[in-house]
């Protein structure tokens, strides 16, 4: 079993934030925060795998009380440089088992992080853990990529996902185990003809939307909405990612007592 703490170590935490760029770009964050704030509906939110606070901090700034769960102490330490525990409480622990309380109206897990759980059992446990901490009628939002197995050429087990100056991303697939390993190669093209590079690898378990829906059902959720992005674009067979909103049953109305005449 992969030790996820080794993947999200001090070096990963130090390099995680890219202010104003990539997943920290305003065009990425602003619709994410706006959608989550609307789904919170004035109640408190729980972020699983809160990381360095990329989403939680602006969501808190939008008036939504946020609590987090995070496995990696270095990621929590980076978050603590931005916000103390009174402003943004965080429980250190695994998102499949750790509890931050009950009564949240919203739980969310963004940026493909469910795939960091490498077995189906762990992924189902994550749904169940979210359900335990939500109030009746609460929702669980997951952002996840759609597996791109159609892009695999016959006889090949990998794809080049990103190729740009100084960075190359290659994904290799094990279709039987439903596993993909992302190989990140970073180099300085201006130095030594880029003969040296730093390589990091991150394993994932990819999940088809239909399988995700079944996991949700096992935890008591039903699918409410699915979009291709945070702006609500329609999800189609060609979408490369999705934002799925699952909801627990609403509280039952109290039964009316029969009045004797």
From TrEMBL:
Q: Say if the entry is tagged with keyword Cytoplasm.
A: no
Q: Which SUPFAM superfamilies match?
A: S-adenosyl-L-methionine-dependent methyltransferases
Q: Which residues form the Methyltransferase domain?
A: 46-138
Determine the domain of life of the protein's source.
Bacteria
Q: Which UniProt keywords apply?
A: Methyltransferase, Transferase
Keyword Repeat applies: no
Q: Name one GO biological process term.
A: methylation
InterPro entries given in the database record: Methyltransf_25, SAM-dependent_MTases_sf
Pfam family of this protein, just one?
Answer: Methyltransf_25
In alphabetical order, the GO MF annotations are:
methyltransferase activity
The name of this protein is Methyltransferase family protein
Please name the source species.
Answer: Brachybacterium faecium (strain ATCC 43885 / DSM 4810 / JCM 11609 / LMG 19847 / NBRC 14762 / NCIMB 9860 / 6-10)
């Amino acid at each position: 079993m992969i030790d996820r703490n080794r993947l999200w170590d001090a070096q990963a935490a130090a390099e995680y934030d890219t202010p104003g760029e990539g997943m920290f770009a305003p065009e990425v964050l602003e619709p994410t925060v706006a959608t989550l704030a609307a789904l919170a509906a004035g109640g408190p939110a729980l972020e699983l795998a809160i990381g360095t606070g990329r989403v939680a901090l602006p969501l808190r700034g939008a008036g939504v009380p946020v609590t987090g769960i995070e496995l990696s102490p270095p990621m929590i330490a980076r978050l603590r440089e931005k916000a103390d525990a009174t402003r943004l409480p965080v429980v250190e622990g695994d998102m499949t088992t750790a509890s931050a309380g009950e009564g949240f109206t919203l739980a969310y897990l963004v940026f493909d992080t469910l795939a960091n759980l490498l077995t189906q059992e762990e992924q189902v446990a994550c749904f169940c853990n979210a359900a335990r901490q939500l109030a009746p009628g609460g929702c669980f939002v997951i952002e996840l990529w759609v597996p791109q197995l159609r892009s695999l050429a016959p006889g090949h087990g990998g794809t080049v996902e990103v190729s740009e100056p100084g960075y190359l991303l290659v994904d290799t697939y094990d279709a039987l185990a439903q596993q993909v390993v992302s190989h990140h190669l970073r180099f300085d093209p201006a130095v030594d003809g880029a003969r040296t590079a730093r390589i990091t690898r991150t394993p994932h378990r990819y999940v088809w939307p239909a399988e995700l829906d079944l996991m949700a059902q096992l935890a008591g959720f039903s699918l409410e909405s699915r979009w291709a992005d945070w702006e609500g674009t329609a999800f189609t067979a060609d979408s490369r990612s999705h934002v799925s909103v699952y909801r627990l049953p609403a509280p039952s109305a109290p039964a009316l007592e029969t009045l004797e005449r």
